[in-house]
Specification:
Layout lengths: L1 H30 L5 H23 L6 H27 L4 H8 L2 H13 L5 H21 L9 H24 L5 H23 L8 H28 L2 H6 L4 H13 L5 H18 L3
Helix pairs in contact: 1-9, 1-11, 2-8, 2-9, 3-7, 3-8, 4-6, 5-7, 6-12
Length: about 290
């Protein structure tokens, strides 16, 4: 019975990750009226470090070597620091969230190409088709639910979104190559150390750091820390360690559709028939990538 439950949990990890990761937009929407974005991320990282320190003590995890810790700090800077910082900066500098999501939505395709070149991960024609269908589905979902908005193509916003895209692709590949053999809890702690330093530098350089400590902000921060920075990231690190880079990256295609459904339920945002059809196309694309031959 225990073995069966463990097998079910392992199989459910990708879907649980998608759900948790997709709530990041929801948490940010609740928090940002009361705090600036980089300072929000800085405080989030500090709270997360405290949680992981406690987990390390309680679980008595094996501490990584200094070399392994260094690799984890590089992963953290890429996956959390530059990716999140780039996304938040692009939106702050005028790029609509939907367009930003489309830019970073190219990630699974780029990750698949790098995984093929660096690790010899061979994808079948069916899987390449799935990646393409997923990208098309995500693009249609975003455009049909949020639209382009007012966007003047500021070079700063474009650069920030491209930095975010490159960071999450390289972070996934870097962790796959150098993150093996490290305890997930201890490794994540070191990732958030480098991220906190980076976000602190951005917050203290470019923001006023004025905070309105409303209960809505506190609840949103708690969820961003426990639901995403702890739970979702541990699941992501596990999937990267155990799976092929392209298959893991393909699950990110499911995040914008999941977020659109959550925004429809929580904020009464539109979810037209075209978006629902595109969600089905995205799911089909991911299925083609991850299904067993």
């Amino acid at each position: 019975m225990t073995t069966r439950l463990h097998r079910v949990f392992i199989q459910a990890i990708p879907l649980l990750f998608v759900f948790l990761w997709s709530t990041g937009f929801i948490g940010a929407k609740y928090a940002l009226p009361f705090i600036e974005p980089f300072y929000l991320l800085f405080i989030r990282m500090l709270w997360t470090i405290a949680v992981f320190l406690l987990l390390c003590v309680v679980l008595r995890v094996q501490w990584p070597s200094w070399q392994q810790a260094g690799h984890q700090m590089v992963t953290g800077l890429l996956l959390h620091g530059l990716y999140l910082g780039g996304v938040f900066a692009a939106i702050k500098w005028g790029m609509p969230a939907g367009i930003t999501a489309i830019v970073v939505g190219i990630q699974p395709l780029l990750t698949a190409v790098l995984g093929w070149r660096l690790f010899g991960e061979r994808l079948l024609p069916r899987q390449w088709l799935g990646l393409a269908l997923g990208l098309i589905g995500v693009t249609v979902v975003i455009l049909s639910t949020r639209g382009y908005g007012n966007f003047d193509f500021a070079w700063s916003a474009i650069a920030a979104s491209l930095i975010a895209l490159a960071a999450i692709v390289m972070g996934t590949v870097y962790q796959k190559r150098f993150g093996g053999g490290v305890n997930l809890v201890a490794g994540s702690l070191w990732q958030y150390v480098s991220t906190a330093l980076f976000m602190g530098l951005l917050a203290y350089s470019f923001e006023t750091r004025v905070v309105v400590w409303d209960k809505q902000l506190i609840f949103a921060l708690a969820w961003l820390v426990l639901g995403l920075s702890v739970s979702a990231i541990l699941l992501l690190m596990y999937m990267i360690r155990e799976g092929e880079a392209a298959k893991v990256a393909s699950y990110f295609y499911l995040v914008p559709p999941a977020t659109s459904i959550e925004a429809w339920l929580l904020f009464d945002e539109s979810l037209p028939l075209l978006a629902m059809a595109a969600i089905a196309l995205t799911v089909a694309g991911v299925y083609l990538v991850v299904k067993k031959t």
